[in-house]
Amino acid sequence: MKPAAFTYHRGRDVDGVTRLLRELGEDAKVLAGGQSLVPMMNFRLARPQHLVDIAGLRELVGIHNDPDGALRIGALTTHHAVETAPSTRVGRNHAVVREAMRWVGHLPIRTRGTVGGSLAHADATAEWCLLAILLDAQLTVRGPDGERAVPAADFFHGYFTTALDSDELLTEIVFPRPAPHSALTEFAERHGDFATVSAAVSLDLAEDGDTVRGARIVLGGVDALPVRCPEAEAVLSRDRPGTGGVLDECAEAAAEHIDPPSDDNGSAHYRRLLTRTLVRRACEEAMTR
Amino acid sequence: MTTEPKPSDGSLIGASVARQEDPRLVSGRGRFTDDLRLPGMLYAQFVRSRVAHGTVTSLDLAPVLEVPGVVAAYSADDLKLVDITARLDRPVSEFVPTGMPVLARDRVRYAGEPLAVVVARDPYAAEDGVEAAKVEYDLRQPVTSAAQALAPEATLVHDEAPANTLLDVSMFATEGIDEVFAEAGHVVTVNTSTGRQNALPLETRGAVAEWDDRDRQLSLTTSSQVPHQVRTVAAACLGMDESAVRVIVPDMGGGFGLKCVVGREEIVTAAAALRLRRPVKWTEDRKDALTASFLGREQHYDARAAFSAEGRLLALDADIVCDMGAYSCYPFTAGIEPMMASSEMPSVYRLPAYRVRARAVTTNKAPSAPYRGVSRPQYVQVVERLFERAARELGMDAVELRRRNLITEFPYTGVNNVTYDPGSYLESLNLCEQTMRDEGWYELRERAAAEGRHLGIGYSCFSERTGYGSKAFAQRKMEVVPGFDISEVRMDVSGALVVTTGTMSHGQSHETTFAQIAASELGLELSRVRVHQGDTNRVTYGWGTYASRSVSIGGSAVRRAARQLGEKLCAIAAARWDVPVAEVELGRAAVRHRADGAQLTFAELADVAYLKSHLLPPELEPGLSETASFDVSTDGTFSNATHGTVVELHPGTGQVEILRYVCVEDCGVAINPRVVDGQTRGGIAQGVAGALFERITYDDQGEPSATSFMDYKVPTALETPEVSVHHLETPCAFTETGAKGVGEGGTIGAPAAVLNAVNDALTPTGVELDSTPVTPETVARALEHAS
């Protein structure tokens, strides 16, 4: 469990890093908090020739509120910084982002792991990946030729693969709209494990407070990507969730929508059962927000 | 006989003094094997088999030597080490000895088996070297389960072991047992399997070896529970005198049995250091610790019990198969689990008729070592399930059924020819149940049921044989017979004490508890007693720490030696005063004249013993050093406990939540009750781990599933219940302090209690679960079954 030899590069600024990445090509990996990459290197499952350490890029650290209500989080912000951000930074409209952090690994992981690192690593059960899809995030990506914004829906391509080119750096995640009625919940055998199944729900409530105008339901742990469940979302928009059986129907629709894997953490059957439970739980939590 | 523990009467025995070890350990000043850095030290890593079963057709280390930083690489052919072979004195029909080569030669028997060692200037280069090795195999069919091992025409793991069976014993077979079963009103059965686990010391294995020219000694620092046994095996494998080998064990981060056997890697590390005449360090990484060290616990039981209509246990019949993996461990052999299970399975109950067959089968998995509790967590699980099942069939309360059958008259000689010394079997059950009732859990369970929730209450009763002396081990027919232990107690010129022990604390607090024993005996302050262990140069001999033997045997040796030293101090004082010895007695760090109260402090007496020896009478030797040994000539002493737990099952996820855990334990005189609490809680954590979380599985090619803590689901503090520990005290009649062992009890009782509670909660579903671990998916499916 020692990595193979690599050349270490310390990044000084975003432009320098993207230029260096272009120069180094496919043999380079970006090192942020190192919470996924370093274990993979220690197992020699990842063997980058070059490691570009961006930990010193302070420009990528920070949590900002835009006047239009958008929440912007710098890619090198740690999970822990988000978890402990004051409500003046991460307000009621984005409380789900802060609250989801308690599901991310253990405290030591959260103090080192970064928002951008998690998104770029693109584990389909990672909380940030679910949040990005759930809240229609825009991912700001910079390369040697400039900056582009990638909608979350286009960012994740499959197991550990994203829209990032090898010379691009994820610099920021932007949550453009308020999402006060949102929740994320998970189940794993142990605290801090990657979820066997995770479910995130975001509701747009009408003035009356219990009619849903629009809903989003995203699941993790059931496929190579975070999965949206349009049929289940439609159930919520059709009937008042408070009325009998609607949440059951919604949870059932989500469970039917997915084609989960069977592995040591649980069979497909069990993942469907968890999906029903967690979708229901997330809906209830989102409604009461 | 049984009393609540009394507050200490000024003696340090029974006092929860702070641990002497803690200041250094909690401030990061502990010194572990991996902390050792020697000038010119090299780093070893192992080329390990990638396949579970095969013949090595070629092993090419030439490319390894090309890797920058690599200094040497050795295979079995280079080092020519003698195999490690553990034996039992039994006919080959019962036991087949199998050698464990220190490095595999032509045959590999599990994925991860060491084939060669690479020594390099740093650990990174060592791993580069490991990658460069070229190994080719002729694959053989891997045997990945006990069922496969025992199937007709199964591939043989060891050619000399037919039916892949290393041990096969049938015992006790009480006359007429078949008739008892035929005529009994009620016969219940349990077929169960328990998961393969890793004992998982946080500190992985490791070694630093160096040839010392001045002492003409190999110095081998290693994390081991059994320093002297490592010395014996290292000397034998390397062809050296034992006195030419010094084994040093510094601070240890746990062992739990995994380190009470002799591993191969530390011997190879020593051999490499001897070859190179440079210090060599090996530190096991977590992947190797999970896949290629020693495992345990994977057992299968086919058991039935007969009960009378009044709920009397009439007979027990069990067929036990233990999946011991690829090799016999030294010194215990692959017989350790099946022999423990078969000889102790009658547990705490009066049993008139017993029959058991117990087998150790060999498979292509990492070998087994005796993990904390050794088979007792498993057979207690089976016996306690049998009681629960019988209670259901008899329509009787399961606690009441236990009460009717618990041993209450002591000493009790069982059908298994074991004599049980006095304990508080019934009292501990009564107190545990009363605690649950007083806390209102029974009402809560009813209320929860009315709300459609699933709460369950479960108990387990057990005793644990501790202080296995040479007689008990000899009955197992081990060729190497552990049992006694030796302590030397030495007073220095200033009147302070050094105590040596052949036991080896790997978390048990011996520096505190053994000091308490010696300090109490001599009326010394605790801070003036130093306990030395873990160095074969400093300690005469010892059998190390396992089988909950240390306080009962090692602690007794300490007390005897301290008493002898006290007698010598009295003799010196009497001589100085020219009075008969009967007129003097030990006081606080001094000897007192009974009549006139005159005192000679230990420092004054030590001054005479060392610096003014001309004042000693001729019959007294200069110096203040006494050595004593202790062995157990009976069947040992039995600690006992009842565990009670309340769980809630969550239907949507299958999660088992432990709401309450109560342990009523009796380990005789608790030298330090807080240390007992710690042992109990830690043990219960490992028992819960086995009940609900941990399991190593293998694919059909024999590849282990768990290579990191992502896959091996050791519970964290957040999954571990808070435990209330109540103490009862039935002093042991024959240990020097009245103490019984307490190292393993927590682990033994927990799986059965948790499993029984889960089954209690599952009652409305009609589903019964007997195997462990009980995963959330298993529970979720059981609850689905109901709805």
Structure description:
The complex is a heterodimer of chains A (289) and B (787). Chain A contains eleven helices and 14 strands. The relative contact order of chain A is 0.12. In chain A, the strands form four sheets. A five-stranded antiparallel β-sheet of chain A has the order 4-5-10-6-7. A four-stranded antiparallel β-sheet of chain A has the order 11-12-13-14, sandwiched between helices. Chain A starts with 6 loop residues before the first strand and ends with a helix. With 289 residues, chain A is an alpha+beta fold. Chain A has three domains: 7-53, 2-Layer Sandwich (Uridine Diphospho-n-acetylenolpyruvylglucosamine Reductase, domain 2), CATH 3.30.43; 62-175, Uridine Diphospho-n-acetylenolpyruvylglucosamine Reductase, domain 3 (2-Layer Sandwich), CATH 3.30.465.10; 181-287, CO dehydrogenase flavoprotein, C-terminal domain (Enolase-like, domain 1, 2-Layer Sandwich), CATH 3.30.390.50. Chain B has 787 residues and is of the alpha+beta class. Among the domains of chain B are: 22-29 and 484-630, Aldehyde Oxidoreductase, domain 4, CATH 3.30.365.10; 406-470 and 633-696 and 705-786, Aldehyde oxidase/xanthine dehydrogenase, molybdopterin binding domain (Aldehyde Oxidoreductase, domain 4). In chain B, strands 3-7-1-14-11-12-13 form a seven-stranded mixed β-sheet, sandwiched between helices. In chain B, strands 9-17-16-15-10 form a five-stranded mixed β-sheet, sandwiched between helices. In chain B, strand 22, helix 16 (510-522) and strand 23 (529-532) form a beta-alpha-beta unit. The longest helix of chain B has 28 residues, at 550-577. In chain B, 59% of the residues are buried. Chains A and B meet through helix 11 of A and helix 4 and helix 21 of B.
